[in-house]
Predict the 3D structure of the following.
Amino acid sequence: EVQLVQSGAEVKKPGESLRISCKGSGYSFTSYWISWVRQMPGKGLEWMGRIDPSDSYTNYSPSFQGHVTISADKSISTAYLQWSSLKASDTAMYYCARHEQLVRWFDPWGQGTLVTVSS
Amino acid sequence: QSALTQPASVSGSPGQSITISCTGTSSDVGGYNYVSWYQQHPGKAPKLMIYDVSNRPSGVSNRFSGSKSGNTASLTISGLQAEDEADYYCSSYTSSSTLEVVFGGGTKLTVL
């Protein structure tokens, strides 16, 4: 079974750093890209950026460029999303999702990681 | 404001059919046959229901169908069931120089 399993919920303070993970299994991890998608409370889906795990090439939505970093470790089939300085406005559910180089579809999705940033 | 426009809500009675629209531009929906649809139940991750405008992944009920005309894609659910009540999102590849994909704002389907 192809699946993406994400790390657990996090509660952080503004200014703290954070890295969440997304582990793929059941397929060749380097044959597909991974995107990260944000869903703020009660809101819709926003594409943040993507990575090719085979060579760690990344590109980002302008809305997230410079505020988050996407990386991957193909040796352990895991992609990451990290922040160096969290803001309260980063409070959201974050999903990883698998796709081909051309983003025709996302499937499967990880179960989501809830990040809460509060002082 | 989302790049693709969906109605905020639609509703229907069990057994009826409903259609959700998704309007974009010639740079996304109208320019490519790479529209996909996702179902999201409360507290759950999105699930792929339709890809490449009208294709169903294995395991998705044939009550779900997709189509496209010009810059507008549509998701139709026939024989509505209570379990279909969820949020639905469309997505499209885009030729934007800065984005790879755009989403619609989502549509809340209520089964009356």
User: Anything to note?
Assistant: Chain A touches chain B at residues 35, 44-47, 50, 59, 61-62, 95, 97, 102-112 (CB under 8 Å). The beta strands of chain A are 3-6, 10-12, 18-25, 33-39, 45-52, 57-60, 69-73, 78-83, 92-99, 113-117.
